[in-house]
């Protein structure tokens, strides 16, 4: 005998992203602000001055990707239990991508899920991590391998926090914006070429455009079955560069910058991108001191590393390729020799 | 400036529950069967003979509620990573409620969620844990405090496994069936009074009725915001009994049986249940050797314990009360003295 469990539901995970100076934030429950030592020192007063809640508890994590692990999650959960947080309590993720990923994951599994709010403080997390609902931690087997999809209830993006951000980290965030522009929005790319992201206004506008692009992609593909993969432009190559540098030599955005140039070599070889477009993208990245050259010592090994990195099941590599500026193609089954040749021609860029 | 992230989606978490002898099971990916030492010894061959998959890995947990913790989850995840499981791999939960809760939670957080299939082997997990999508583990702060909602892809209920189930555990499962009948289905209750659950056919029919009831409740309220709370009939009282017995003296279903009788005393006091109905329920429970009497040493302390147990935020206790056989009421704000008097009259049952 067979019984059908009907769980077709209209789920509304919609939320608002506010891109403006933080105003009063009223929360009618207990709140845990999860942050790290650096952000706490610089900005906790700014947040507390604007926050009203039934009770506020600040949970402080060590600063750094190496603390993005299960031990940190368990210590967050212990803290919540000890302070009698319950199903109607809320979490505020206050920091960069690492804090956001961990706070979101803790919120996802505390008593089977409570609400969380994001207040991202780095440019990268403002344009990237704040949209999409991916939460998680690293394990010894790799990055982001344990986690959940858990959408925030609201995101507050305030460029105030960027004032204290080191230039290098700011630029790494710009790499992700350029990525969005190249793959989805030619007009945004043209605009980026025409401005300098030095004043608050233009940064805020650029963040807004990036968030809008990512939001529209995520809305179409919340759980990354299709088009959302296009957000990984520059990442297939970039991840290998990151790993070769032991995740220390390059910031994520810097590795993506290098990865974009590599991917573009392949696009040009396949006739999807003109030399002129390739050059415009590289010029824009370099304007923000982003690295574009890198010497691949062992091209064969570099190629093999694509297979280590894969979460998906099958054995072909998916390449995300810019197809002129402003659009993107997801291409499988590119011949190995074509990829190897593109990597060789990439190496040659540095030899010039 | 404000950007709306539109994530209104028609989510289809529907699945089939098969209540029949297990036939061939074809799975076109790698599969991890998560089970415990006892079930593995008794039934793994039965399952393996019927299972076809790309690759099968058996992950064996220790048997018992005290292993339902984060360490077991981490060891499952390590095992999956070491064996190169990926996003398209699947998990089969093969055992009772503890195995089901843990396997489901591991499936929920492995690479942000993979599919899992339930093959429950105890009567309790067949009627209860296999429907609803609640997964999770215990922490030192309490039961099921860490977890996620993650629906299975399919559930296979085969009464074959019940042959090896100790009588006491079988009866504890019957308590949950009686709970479903009292709260939602008078006809099912009448039928239960008319049969003896000794032959396979009647057990299978009783499981099917229970599953149908739970399924219809869960479909209305997947994340336990309203009517689903009614499934906790007997549980508010039962949990305190369980805790007083250190979770060792009584099986969960036995504590629920006692809790039902306590809740019914309150129903009778409030005029929601007749003496005759109360007596029919008790008679049915006792037919399956389920405990109905229990001496509350300190009634005041017993009452206070309701507040410790609560996951919800506010400070009132919600009572789930049978309102005649076949329907249920969720009642808040019952005067403390009324509850205390009902507990006194419960104690008096044992003194007779």
Core attributes:
352 residues, 12 strands, Dehydroquinate synthase-like, alpha domain, Rossmann fold, 12 helices, two-stranded antiparallel ribbon, 46% helix, alpha/beta, six-stranded parallel β-sheet, homodimer
Topology:
The structure is a homodimer.
Chain A: E1 2-5, E2 8-12, E3 15-19, E4 25-36, H1 37-50, E5 51-61, H2 70-82, E6 90-95, H3 97-109, E7 115-120, H4 123-129, E8 134-139, E9 142-149, E10 154-157, H5 167-184, H6 186-194, H7 200-220, H8 235-244, H9 252-269, H10 275-287, H11 299-308, E11 319-322, E12 328-331, H12 336-351
Parallel strand pairs in A: 3-10, 4-5, 4-6, 6-7, 7-10
Antiparallel strand pairs in A: 8-9, 11-12
Helix pairs in contact in A: 2-3, 4-5, 4-7, 5-6, 5-7, 5-9, 8-9, 9-10, 9-12
Could you describe the 3D structure shown?
2 copies of one chain form a homodimer. Chain A is α/β, with parallel strands linked by helices and 352 residues long. Chain A has 2 domains: 16-163, 3-Layer(aba) Sandwich (Rossmann fold), CATH 3.40.50; 167-351, Dehydroquinate synthase-like - alpha domain (Dehydroquinate synthase-like, alpha domain, Up-down Bundle), CATH 1.20.1090. Chain A has helices spanning 37-50, 70-82, 97-109, 123-129, 167-184, 186-194, 200-220, 235-244, 252-269, 275-287, 299-308, 336-351; strands at residues 2-5, 8-12, 15-19, 25-36, 51-61, 90-95, 115-120, 134-139, 142-149, 154-157, 319-322, 328-331. Chain A starts with a strand and ends with a helix. β2 of chain A pairs antiparallel with β2 of chain B, so a sheet runs across the interface.
């Amino acid at each position: 005998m067979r019984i059908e469990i009907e769980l077709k539901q209209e789920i509304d995970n919609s939320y608002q992203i506010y891109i403006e100076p933080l105003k009063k934030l009223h929360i009618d429950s207990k709140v845990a602000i999860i942050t790290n030592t650096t952000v706490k020192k610089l900005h906790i007063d700014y947040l507390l001055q604007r926050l009203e809640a039934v009770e506020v508890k600040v949970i402080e994590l060590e600063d750094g990707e190496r603390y993005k692990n299960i031990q940190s999650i368990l210590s967050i959960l212990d803290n919540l239990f000890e302070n009698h947080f319950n199903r109607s309590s809320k979490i505020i993720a206050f920091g960069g991508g690492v804090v956001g990923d961990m706070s979101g994951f803790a919120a996802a599994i505390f008593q089977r899920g409570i609400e969380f709010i994001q207040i991202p403080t780095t440019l990268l997390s403002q344009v990237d991590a704040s949209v999409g609902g991916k939460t998680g931690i690293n394990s010894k087997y790799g990055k982001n391998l344990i986690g959940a999809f858990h959408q925030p209830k609201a995101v507050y993006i305030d460029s105030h926090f960027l004032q204290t951000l080191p230039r290098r980290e700011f630029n790494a965030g710009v790499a992700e914006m350029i990525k969005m522009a190249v793959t989805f929005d030619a007009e945004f790319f043209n605009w980026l070429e025409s401005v300098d992201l030095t004043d608050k206004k233009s940064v805020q506008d650029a963040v807004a455009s990036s968030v809008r692009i990512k939001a529209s992609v995520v809305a179409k593909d919340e759980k990354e079955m299709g088009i959302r993969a296009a957000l990984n432009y520059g990442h297939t190559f970039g991840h290998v560069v990151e790993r070769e540098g032991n995740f220390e030599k390059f910031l994520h955005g810097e590795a993506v910058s290098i990865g974009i140039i590599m991917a573009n070599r392949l696009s040009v070889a396949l006739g999807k991108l003109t030399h002129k477009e390739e050059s415009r993208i590289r010029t824009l990245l370099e304007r923000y001191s982003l690295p574009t050259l890198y010497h691949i010592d062992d091209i064969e090994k570099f190629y093999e590393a694509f297979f280590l990195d894969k979460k998906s099941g099958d054995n072909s590599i998916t390449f995300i390729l810019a197809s002129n500026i402003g659009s993107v193609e997801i291409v499988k089954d590119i011949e190995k020799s074509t990829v190897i040749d593109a990597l060789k021609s990439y190496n040659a860029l540095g030899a010039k």
